[in-house]
Amino acid sequence: MKHFECPVIGRRPATEFICSGGSVGILLMEDGDAAREALFFGDATARVKREWWYHKPSRLWFVFERDTATDFVHSIELATKVSRDERV
Hints:
With about 90 residues, the protein is an all-beta fold.
């Protein structure tokens, strides 16, 4: 079973977490004469990404820095410690 080494809650099984993805934003798209908004979740490029992960038992949000090609987690930090300018 895969585990994450979290500096806040210790070594936890990956099954306790839910990944909500990387960059999320709203894109303004032109549709003829009307503009419409579309939700996007970043690209599918294999690289190191910052992603939001939710830990179900503790009800805490974390930001993982994870290589999507190898699934290696470079860092984990509590989401409340991430400044507004750094949020993904």
